Amino acid sequence: MGSLVQAQSWQKSRITVSGGWMRQLFGYDYERQTAPVVGISYGYSPLKFMESEAGVHVALQPGQELCYRFGCYVPDDRYFWVPFGVRFIAPLLAKRLELSLGGGGLYQKYSVSNPDNWFRDGWGGYLSGGTAVALDRRRRFWAGVTPRVILANPKYVRNLWFTITGDLSFHF
Question: What is 94-141 written as a DSSP string?
Fold first, then answer.
């Protein structure tokens, strides 16, 4: 009986902490917002080469300082993105290098010191690709890079963002 049952050869769960940069993809150059991005995500692999994932990513202070004749206003704003979707993984080089491609839905929440900005909250989607390399022999700790394109469609606005993050993951 023991010879009929195979041991599990991959870790089914993943927790990733990421940090990087985002830039708005439309508008005039002087209007485009850029900001640092931090995030955390969880992934579960029901199949060896497929992972369902969800997380939270935050863009810190993307709004630009606005100056008028009466002074300047610094918006102290944040974009919160909650992505949820599927990622397909291709293990390479003795399963120590992974390439991935994924996408799914997304909820965007905008927060600013002026509370009257409800029009920037909304639903959308994202596409991501990435590469990661195992840092240890047991393939539990990984470092990688993930570029993402985020499209959010709140009322009256279309937000299109590009983010790129460095990721540290723990598989278990």
Answer: TTTEEEEEEEEEEEEEEE-SSS--GGG-EEEEEEEEEEEEESSTTS-E
Structurally, how many domains does the chain consist of? 1
- What is the per-residue pLDDT across 106-121, written as a single tens digit (0 to 9) for each? 999 988 876 655 577 8
Angstrom CA distances, 153 to 47, 69, 119, 120, 124, stand at 31, 33, 10, 8, 5
Strand partners, 79: 59, 110
Q: How many residues does the chain have?
A: 172
Amino acid at 12: K
pTM, entire model:
0.85
Q: Residue 29 phi/psi, 5° resolution?
A: -55, -40
Is 7 inside any structural domain? no
